[in-house]
Amino acid sequence: MLFLRSLLFYIGMILGLIIWAPVIIIAPIFPYPKRYNLLIKWGHFTVWWLGKTCNLTYKIHGMENLPKTPSIILSKHQSACETIMYLKIFPMQTWILKQELLWIPIYGLALKNLGAITIKRQNIRKSMQQVIIKGKHSLESGRLVVIFPEGTRVAYGQKKKYGIGGALLAEKTGYPVVPIAHNAGKFWPKKKFIKQPGIVDIVIGPIIESKNKTYREINSLTEEWIEKTMERL
Question: What fold does the segment set 57-232 form as a domain?
Answer without folding.
Answer: Glycerol-3-phosphate (1)-acyltransferase (3.40.1130)
